[in-house]
Amino acid sequence: MGNSKKLNVIQSKNNIITLITEEDIKTYTPLSANKVETSMIQFIFLAQENYTKKNLGRKLYKRLMAEWIKANFEGDGVIVPIVFDDETNYQELYSELFQSLVWWSFVVSLPSIAISVEENGILIKESEMSESGGIVGLDRLISEYRANAQRYTQELIEYICETFPKDDDTVVDAGKPSFRI
Long-range contacts made by residues 109-115, C-beta under 8 angstroms, separation at least 24? Predict the structure, then answer.
């Protein structure tokens, strides 16, 4: 891949708007800060699109993203409603979804962190200071960490159910099941 194509890929990744950072995953999960050489942005975005959006519902997700962009790219980082008559506490909503998104991002990223696809086949990554746990070990870890993500997701769904009236068209499609990893 030529340098200009590499720069285009890097620039495209920099333009992806996510609700959490790579540092959040490294802070709140077992992933250590020096462990991953690859960008986590694509995994955060994947988890955000496939879990957070489905759990919030499209309308609430779009509103949260609009508020997030306004607060973090045009404002002081405090999420306040920009939609007239919108009484949603976006800061609280963000706090409720944060752990779910962190853990789903981690779960989504684990296979790519642990396994590399190369010309000579699929390889389980190892370092000089570690031993590979194999596919069975990886499956066990993914199951364990998926349980954390599901628990935080359940808490998010309970928050949505307690906070928004059932007839609120903002959350009519909230809490819908998403695909499993």
Answer: 109/25, 109/31, 109/36, 109/40, 109/43, 110/138, 110/141, 110/142, 110/145, 111/138, 111/142, 112/38, 112/43, 113/31, 113/35, 113/36, 113/38, 114/138
